[in-house]
C-alpha cells in the first residue's frame, strides 16, 4: 500500500491564527486517538503520515492491548505494541488460546450429516431432521428448535443472503441468511426463522446437491440443484414456490447422478457441474430455453471418484480419486495437477489468494504450493500435517488457519495456513464404553468452531468461541480427555426419546 500523503504543516489558515490538528503535539493527538475504535485508527493512519504516527502510538495500543488481553504481556519487539496487538489478534483466529468459551449440547446418538455455523446460530441435520440452536439466546433460557418437513435424509445444506430471495426482510434482517436444504425426498426447501417458506419439486429422484453460490440470471438470483436423475435444474428464489414459476430451466447432459455444483468466479452466469462418473460440464445459464442441452459450453473429465470442486475466477480446482487438477474454464484445458495424495483423497480445500491447496488423506493432511507445482508432473507437498487417526474427511481453510478432523479421531487439529505448524488440538467427544467415535461434522467461522460427534449412548455438539479468550497457549493431544482446565464449560441436555 502506498504511503499516505504528508500532512501540510502550514497553511493560510495557520498564518491567520487558526489552530489546526497539525498544531497539536504528538502526545495530545495520541490521547485523542485512544478514544477511537480499531477500524477508526486504521482509517486515521491512512489520512497522512503525520496522523499515522499518532494512530500507531504505543500508548494508544498498550491501552487496547491490556483491555483485551489482561493476562498477556506485549512482546518487547521493535515493531511496537500495535504489532503485538495484531499478533494476538491473529493468534485468536488460529485458536492459539487455551481458555475459549465451551458449550456442550447432548443430543440423540445419531449420525450428524451436515453442520453449519451462521454467525452465532448452529444448524445441523440428523437423517431427515434439521435442528437450529440460537446461541445468543441460550444463556437466557435456551432456544433450540427442530424442522421436520423433510421426510427423508438431508443431502445438502446451504446458506444464502436473505435479500437475494423473494422473502422480504425487515430492516433488522437485511444482513441475515436463509437456509436452503435438499433431500432424498426429491424436494428443496427454503427456511426462515425455523419455518419452511418455500418448497420446490421437479427432480425425478433424490436431490443430491445444491450450488455453492447463487447464479446471476437476468437480474434474478437463481439456485442450481443436481439430482440422482442426472439433470441440473435452475430455480428462481424470487418466485412464490409454485413449481411452474420457480423452475426456470432443466439442463440435460449428464448420464450419472450430479454430485457437485459450483458457480464460476469470473462470470456468475456460468455453472460448473460434476457427476458421479467424474464428467465435468460447464453451462451458460443465460440461454433462455426452459429445457436445454445446447447451453453446455464445455466438457471435460478427471480420473477417480469425485471428492469436491471449487471455482476461483476462471480456474476450476477439482479433487477426484487421488489428485487435485486445475482446469481453465475458458478453454476447458487442464492447466496442471497441483496435488497427488495416495492412495486416495478424502477432503480438499484451497486458498487461491495464497496459492495453497490442502488435501486430506489417511492419517494425515498435506499442504501444497500451487505455484511450485506448476512445472512438474510429480507435485511435492510443502508440509505434512500428521498425527491424525484414520481418514481426514473434514477440512477447513481460511487465511489464518487450517482445521482438520475425521470420524476415527476424537480430536480436531488447527494449523497455521502459511507454515503448517500445529496451533491447537481440540477434543470433540467424551469417552464411552466401547469404540471411541470421532468427529462426524465440523463448521468454522472466524474465531468460532463447532464439532458434532456421536457414540453408542449420546450425540454431542460442542461449540467453542475463542473471540473472548485471554490466556495464550494450547494443550497437546496427550492431555487428560476428561478435563478441560481453564475453559468455561456450559452443558445442556436435550430430551432423549
Total of DSSP H or I helical runs spanning 4+ residues: 8
* Helix amount: 10-25%
Runs with pLDDT <50, length 5+?
9-14, 476-489
Give the mean pLDDT: 85
Structural class: mainly beta
Main β-sheet description: 6 strands, mixed
Strand count: 35
In terms of quaternary structure, the protein is: single chain
Distance between the termini: 59 Å
Strand content: 35-45%
Morphology: globular
Rg over CA atoms: 25 Å
Report on the architecture of this protein.
It is a single chain. This protein is mostly beta strands. Helices cover about 10% and strands about 40% of the residues. Helix 3 (about 40-45) packs antiparallel against helix 4 (about 50-55). The protein starts with 11 loop residues before the first helix and ends with a strand.
Please give a quick description of this structure.
By secondary structure, the protein is mostly beta strands.
Distinctive features:
497 residues, mainly beta, 6-stranded mixed beta sheet, 5-stranded mixed beta sheet, 35 strands
List the helices and strands and how they pair.
Elements: H1 12-15, H2 26-33, H3 38-45, H4 49-55, H5 58-68, H6 81-93, E1 101-107, E2 114-118, E3 121-126, E4 129-134, H7 135-138, E5 144-147, E6 154-161, E7 177-183, E8 187-192, E9 195-201, E10 207-210, E11 215-217, E12 220-227, E13 232-236, H8 243-246, E14 247-251, E15 258-263, E16 270-275, E17 279-284, E18 291-292, E19 296-301, E20 306-312, E21 315-320, E22 323-328, E23 333-340, E24 347-351, E25 356-360, E26 365-369, E27 383-385, E28 394-397, E29 401-405, E30 411-416, E31 422-427, E32 439-445, E33 448-454, E34 459-465, E35 488-493
Parallel strand pairs: 1-35, 14-18
Antiparallel strand pairs: 1-34, 2-3, 3-4, 4-5, 6-7, 7-8, 8-9, 10-12, 11-12, 12-13, 13-14, 15-16, 16-17, 17-19, 20-21, 21-22, 22-23, 24-25, 25-26, 26-27, 28-29, 29-30, 30-31, 32-33, 33-34
Helix pairs in contact: 2-4, 3-4, 5-6
Amino acid at each position: 500500500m502506498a504511503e499516505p500523503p504528508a500532512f501540510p504543516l502550514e497553511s493560510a489558515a495557520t498564518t491567520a491564527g487558526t489552530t489546526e490538528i497539525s498544531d497539536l503535539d504528538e502526545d495530545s493527538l495520541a490521547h485523542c486517538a485512544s478514544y477511537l475504535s480499531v477500524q477508526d485508527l486504521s482509517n486515521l493512519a491512512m489520512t497522512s503520515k503525520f496522523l499515522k504516527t499518532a494512530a500507531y502510538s504505543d500508548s494508544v495500543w498498550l491501552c487496547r492491548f491490556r483491555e483485551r488481553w489482561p493476562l498477556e504481556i506485549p512482546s518487547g519487539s521493535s515493531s511496537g505494541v500495535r504489532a503485538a496487538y495484531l499478533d494476538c489478534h491473529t493468534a485468536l483466529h488460529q485458536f492459539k488460546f487455551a481458555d475459549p468459551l465451551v458449550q456442550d449440547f447432548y443430543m440423540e446418538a445419531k449420525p450428524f450429516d451436515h453442520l453449519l455455523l451462521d454467525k452465532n446460530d448452529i444448524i445441523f441435520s440428523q437423517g431427515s431432521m434439521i435442528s437450529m440452536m440460537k446461541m445468543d439466546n441460550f444463556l437466557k433460557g435456551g432456544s433450540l428448535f427442530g424442522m421436520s418437513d423433510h421426510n427423508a435424509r438431508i443431502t445438502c445444506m446451504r446458506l444464502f443472503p436473505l435479500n437475494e430471495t423473494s422473502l422480504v426482510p425487515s430492516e433488522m434482517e437485511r444482513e441475515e441468511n436463509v437456509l436452503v436444504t435438499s433431500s432424498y425426498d426429491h424436494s428443496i426447501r427454503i427456511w426462515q426463522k425455523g419455518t419452511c417458506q418455500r418448497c420446490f419439486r421437479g427432480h425425478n429422484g433424490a436431490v443430491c446437491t445444491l450450488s455453492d453460490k447463487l447464479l446471476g440470471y437476468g437480474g434474478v438470483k437463481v439456485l442450481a440443484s443436481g439430482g440422482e436423475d442426472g439433470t441440473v435444474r435452475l430455480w428462481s428464489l424470487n418466485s412464490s414456490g409454485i413449481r411452474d414459476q420457480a423452475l426456470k430451466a432443466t439442463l440435460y447432459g449428464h448420464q450419472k447422478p450430479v454430485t457437485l455444483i459450483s458457480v464460476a468466479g469470473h462470470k456468475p452466469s456460468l455453472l460448473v457441474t460434476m457427476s458421479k462418473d467424474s464428467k465435468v460440464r460447464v453451462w451458460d445459464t443465460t440461454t433462455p430455453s426452459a429445457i436445454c442441452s445446447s447451453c453446455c459450453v464445455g466438457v471435460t473429465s478427471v480420473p477417480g471418484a469425485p471428492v469436491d470442486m471449487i471455482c476461483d475466477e476462471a480456474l476450476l480446482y477439482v479433487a477426484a480419486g487421488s489428485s487435485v487438477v486445475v482446469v481453465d474454464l475458458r478453454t476447458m484445458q487442464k492447466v496442471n495437477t497441483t496435488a497427488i495424495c495416495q492412495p486416495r483423497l478424502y477432503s480438499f480445500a484451497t486458498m487461491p489468494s495464497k496459492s495453497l491447496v490442502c488435501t486430506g488423506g489417511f492419517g494425515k493432511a498435506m499442504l501444497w504450493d500451487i505455484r511450485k507445482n506448476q512445472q512438474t508432473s510429480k507435485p511435492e507437498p510443502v508440509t505434512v500435517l500428521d498425527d491424525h487417526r484414520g481418514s481426514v474427511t473434514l477440512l477447513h481453510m481460511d487465511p489464518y488457519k487450517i482445521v482438520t478432523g475425521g470420524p476415527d479421531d476424537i480430536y480436531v487439529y488447527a494449523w497455521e495456513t502459511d507454515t503448517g505448524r500445529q496451533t491447537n488440538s481440540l477434543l470433540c467427544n467424551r469417552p464411552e464404553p466401547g469404540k471411541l467415535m470421532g468427529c462426524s461434522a465440523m463448521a468454522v467461522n472466524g474465531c468460532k468452531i463447532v464439532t458434532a460427534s456421536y457414540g453408542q449412548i449420546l450425540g454431542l455438539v460442542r461449540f467453542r468461541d475463542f473471540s473472548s479468550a485471554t490466556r495464550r497457549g494450547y494443550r497437546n493431544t496427550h492431555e487428560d480427555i476428561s478435563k478441560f482446565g481453564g475453559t468455561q464449560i456450559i452443558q445442556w441436555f436435550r430430551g432423549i426419546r
